[in-house]
Design goal:
heterodimer, A: mainly alpha, B: alpha/beta, 6-stranded mixed beta sheet, 10 strands
């Protein structure tokens, strides 16, 4: 019994210690951001590896999600004779929910895990220590640009996802199932509000980008420097950031749409 | 400018990891311009000592003075300024794997100076020439042998012309030729560039051949210090065991355990 309480206490303490280290790290990472504007090449390089290289999975997934939405939406709407509203349905679900959320989940799996593994391996092979001894702060030099790149890339990827998804819905709805072309676009145009839908979707994806990249760089930096430690950290990145994204999505949705 | 001959001065250093004392009152001095070798069995914290000197970790107690500055209390900025004057060679080289040999050596120059590309090129080639790898500038770290990685890392460590270099087990796992190359390089660089070198090692032959002064560490303390000759002729049982590689002595063959008989449930 005592052992159980002890281990519970130990786990609790460990959790709070990690939470504390995570917060100290994010402040340190943010402190490193201003210096990056003098060397934009560092950011561009990371935006490429974090963002551009994630494009394929985002675009392909977006297209398929859009097609499925077109199919499912049509089947439901046609019962009410409202298949003209297919465009609205596809666009709203994508811009408000699926775009930011699915992109964040894919982003955590594709870019987040890569960030954690890269930073964790740099730690395991003493590259981070070597930087410290060369008087280069690894948090500012390695973590900050990656963090900023993630934060910048996430909303852009989410926008891509939604845009391609709308095209996917168009392809199935209009192209295959015969929904009226003009109705698809004009109803979408009339119903999607810039502030309520797009703006809120962008805020969501910014928040997700912040959290996912934060978790990814922290897990990498905090990894136990062995192969097992890095593998665990990578798993934790994907699990924790996916859970964080879904949890935050609920909170944000509740706040935005009452 | 003060002309103090001691570059690194460690006093009453205490450090523990997971409630195990690694250092329990270590005192040592590292002389300017000399090669000081720190030896001791594996697990005595030799590498930890280098990390403490570079303030990658903080001691529990005690002082570490490097070039007149107390590293344990330095602020972030001053610490980084001091580190620019310290080079460190890690056991596996710790090269940045996504950069070529050339870029690895250029890295500290690009980070800390605003030199023109042409000047950086000249400097990098000079450093590479010093370690005999000018022809390997376009290789990636994965294409280098262990000995070559260490030589590249050495070139990188001297890129900013530091006042001292710390070598972490430079001879471990090297074939006789690369071992010979490294021994010669450490000596030559030390003398040619007027460096101060701290070498952590347990390869007695190589280490004693270049050492100006040797410290033997064991059980968290300095157990002996002197030139190679002093130690070979020392009365200290400990020094004798280590220098001759005897399996049993003050460092016991057995890991601490309960008596053998009672462990086997007999007697």
């Amino acid at each position: 019994m005592i052992d159980f309480i002890q281990s519970l206490g130990h786990k609790g303490l460990e959790f709070f210690q990690r939470l504390g280290r995570g917060h100290i790290l994010i402040f340190d990472v943010l402190k490193g951001l201003p210096a990056l504007f003098i060397r934009p090449s560092l950011i561009i390089q990371q935006v490429f590896s974090v963002g551009v290289l994630s494009l394929i999975i985002i675009i392909v997934s977006g297209f398929f999600v859009g097609m499925v939405m077109g199919l499912q939406g049509y089947n439901t709407l046609v019962d009410f004779g409202a298949e003209e509203s297919l465009g609205v349905m596809v666009a709203l679900s994508l811009v408000r929910e699926l775009g930011p959320v699915v992109t964040a989940l894919l982003f955590a799996g594709r870019a987040g895990s890569a960030l954690t593994a890269e930073i964790g391996l740099m730690k395991a092979t003493e590259q981070l220590s070597a930087m410290e001894m060369m008087a280069v702060d690894p948090v500012h030099r390695v973590l900050s640009p990656r963090f900023l790149a993630g934060f910048i890339s996430m909303p852009l990827l989410a926008a891509m996802f939604s845009a391609v998804g709308v095209l996917g819905g168009f392809f199935v709805g209009v192209g295959l199932l015969g929904v009226d072309d003009g109705a698809y676009w004009s109803q979408m145009q009339a119903s999607v509000d810039f502030y309520d839908d797009i703006y809120n979707g962008v805020i969501k994806s910014l928040v997700f980008g912040f959290v996912v990249t934060w978790i990814a760089v922290f897990e990498g930096y905090d990894a136990i420097p062995t192969s097992e430690g890095v593998s665990r950290a990578t798993t934790r990145t994907v699990v924790h950031s996916s859970l964080a994204v879904l949890g935050l999505d609920f909170i944000l949705t509740a706040l935005m749409f009452n | 400018m003060k002309k103090n001959n001691t570059l690194v001065k460690v006093r009453n250093l205490k450090f523990a990891r997971n409630s195990r004392m690694i250092f329990d009152g270590v005192d040592l001095d590292i002389q300017r311009g000399k090669i000081t070798v720190i030896m001791g069995p594996s697990g005595t914290g030799k590498t930890t000592l280098l990390r403490l000197i570079g303030r990658q970790i903080k001691p529990l107690e005690g002082t570490i003075e490097v070039d007149g500055e107390e590293v344990t209390t330095l602020g972030h900025r001053q610490l980084y300024e001091l580190r620019k004057r310290m080079g460190m060679l890690f056991q596996n080289g710790a090269l940045l794997t996504d950069l070529s040999v050339f870029e690895n050596i250029a890295y500290p120059l690009r980070e800390h100076t605003n030199l023109s590309e042409e000047l950086i090129r000249t400097l990098v080639l000079m450093k590479l020439e010093a370690v005999g790898l000018r022809g390997a500038r376009d290789l990636m770290p994965a294409e280098l042998s262990g000995g070559m990685s260490r030589r590249v890392a050495l070139a990188r460590a001297i890129a900013l012309d530091p006042m001292m270099i710390m070598y972490d087990e430079p001879f471990t796992g090297q074939d006789p030729i690369s071992m010979g190359v490294l021994v010669r390089l450490i000596r030559n660089l030390n003398d040619a560039l007027g460096l101060t070198s701290v070498v952590v090692s347990h390869d007695i032959e190589e280490a004693t051949s270049i050492a100006d002064y040797i410290y033997l560490l064991s059980g968290g303390k300095v157990v002996a210090g002197g030139t190679a000759e002093d130690l070979a002729n020392s009365d200290s049982e400990w020094a004798q065991q280590f220098m001759k590689g005897l399996p049993d002595g003050p460092v016991p063959f057995h890991y601490p355990s309960e008596p053998y008989a009672s462990d086997l449930n007999i007697g």
